[in-house]
Amino acid sequence: MKKLFVLATAVGAIGLAGCQSSPASMSQPLEGHRFILQKVDGVPFSQTGKKTPFIEFSKDGRVIGSMCNHFFGKSQWNESHLQASELVTTRMICASTALNSAEGVLTQALAKGVDTSFENGVLTLKNADHTLVYKLDSASASK
């Protein structure tokens, strides 16, 4: 009987340990939403042409977006740190030098990794070299 009690206690402890959740990844509140580029390294970004530069995070762990070119790839999260080192992107030449520059900043930042913060609909991606600020797309927020 004593052995049965010890076995039942051990099984219960293992079961409860499996129920513990790990700290939530920063990706969870961002999933399924689109964010529109607002600033690159502190300089307000003004849209040129018909394309609206954006980034979004899918529920299956992908990062998707568009600057001049479209890009997508697997995102790796460690709490609030994001890295997407293997982005697939189209390779068109941007008509706007500002957009071309911003695209280079974004892809380099994601490859190196960025710390993320999300507050009041503003998403900030920041590392030692660059800071990109995005605003939650109002159409995305209503989903």
Fold and architecture overview:
The protein has 143 residues and is α+β, with helices and mostly antiparallel strands. The chain has one domain: Lipocalin (Beta Barrel). The protein contains 4 helices and 11 strands; from the N terminus they run H-H-E-E-E-E-E-E-E-E-H-E-E-E-H. Strands 1, 2, 3, 4, 5, 6, 7, 8, 9, 10 and 11 form an 11-stranded antiparallel β-sheet that branches. It is globular and about 35 Å long. Residues 1-24 have low confidence and may be disordered.
Supply database-style keywords.
11 strands; 11-stranded antiparallel β-sheet; 143 residues; 4 helices; alpha+beta; Lipocalin; globular
How many beta strands in the DSSP annotation? 11
Low-confidence stretches: 1-24
CA distance, first residue to last residue: 56 Å
CATH architecture: Beta Barrel
Mean pLDDT: 80
Q: What's this entry about, in short?
A:
The protein has helices at residues 2-19, 27-30, 97-112, 138-141, and strands at residues 34-40, 43-44, 54-57, 62-66, 70-74, 76-78, 81-83, 88-89, 114-119, 122-126, 131-136. With 143 residues, the protein is α+β, with helices and mostly antiparallel strands.
Task: Show the helix and strand layout.
Blueprint: H1 2-19, H2 27-30, E1 34-40, E2 43-44, E3 54-57, E4 62-66, E5 70-74, E6 76-78, E7 81-83, E8 88-89, H3 97-112, E9 114-119, E10 122-126, E11 131-136, H4 138-141
Antiparallel strand pairs: 1-2, 1-3, 1-11, 3-4, 4-5, 5-8, 6-7, 7-9, 9-10, 10-11
